[in-house]
Design a protein that fits this description.
The chain is of the alpha+beta class. It is built from nine helices and 14 strands.
Length: 286
């Protein structure tokens, strides 16, 4: 991959999406060159916001032809730098921000089809509007996007009952590095045909292609919720409690989160209105 990209080549990339959706200024690029903790910093001469899968295809085709490095970016909420361009390089960022549609909701088949740039919270709302549940839930759900959730195989707080994103996805639409579009938007829950290419792209962090669409599983809304908070003296006690909860609740147990004392203290310190709900301090909490 070339370390620099000529102005003429940048113009060719920009022409694919239109100048309005090709960001070049330092101020416009700045939020996309760093992750939330500030541990990873990168550089880029250009950020592209394609409107559809055809524009993503044209971008990647040109990038492959010219040996230009590309970094996919959705909500930019990751904390390990996977969505951050390299420092001192000329990686072009491809943002799926504009590709944010809910394409279809089928409450009979219990599925939803969304763009890779659809915000997780909007997917949850679309499911709820049809009396259904999309169970992935995590702290960044108001800004993270489905393509990133799939590319990182996100788990969230309900993995025990529903699994990671790999288990919540039936099919994908992916643009390969060559610009070819793989239409794997299968809707069948029972599908034993051929190789399961879907699983290769889920968790691949965008290294095999850019996820531009997905068929997601929906579930019935739970009839109720119960939440408990407990202080424990050891991890062994937490494991015993987990075993007891599983025995009593069965498949209705959706989450079981283990937190050290430090986690509770730092949360109470930095988030206004939060306090330790227990009178005594414990080394571990669930």
């Amino acid at each position: 991959m070339s370390a620099s990209v000529s102005p003429e080549l940048l113009d060719r990339f920009a022409a694919i999406v239109g100048e309005k959706y090709a960001l070049r200024s330092e101020a416009e690029l700045a939020p996309h060159l760093i992750e939330n903790r500030g541990l990873y910093h990168g550089s880029s001469p250009l950020l592209l916001k394609p409107a559809n899968v055809e524009e993503v295809s044209a971008i990647l085709k040109l990038a492959t032809e010219t040996g230009t490095a590309v970094v996919p970016q959705t909500g930019n909420t990751g904390l390990v730098g996977g969505q951050t361009p390299r420092e001192g390089k000329s990686d072009i960022i491809v943002s799926l921000e504009r590709m944010n549609r809910i394409r279809d909701v089928d409450p009979v088949a219990n599925l939803l089809v969304a763009d890779g740039g659809a915000i997780l919270a909007e997917v949850q709302k679309a499911a709820e509007a049809h009396g259904k549940l999309f169970p992935l839930s995590l702290g960044a759900e108001g800004s993270c996007r489905i393509g990133g959730n799939l590319s990182t195989n996100a788990g969230g707080t309900a993995v025990l009952a529903y699994g990671n994103m790999r288990q919540l996805c039936l099919g994908l639409e992916v643009v390969l590095p060559t610009g070819e579009i793989w239409d794997g938007l299968r809707r069948l829950k029972k599908d034993n045909t051929g190789y399961d290419l879907r699983d290769l792209f889920i968790g691949a962090e965008g290294t095999l292609g850019i996820i531009t669409g997905a068929v997601l599983k929906l579930y019935p809304q739970p009839l109720g919720h119960q939440v408990a908070f407990a202080g424990l003296n050891s991890v062994e006690e937490a494991l015993a409690l987990f075993n007891l909860a599983g025995s009593l609740c069965g498949t209705s147990l959706t989450g079981f989160e283990l937190m050290p004392r430090f986690g509770v203290e730092i949360t109470a310190k930095h988030i206004e209105g939060v306090r330790d709900p227990l009178e005594s301090a414990y080394p571990w909490y669930v």
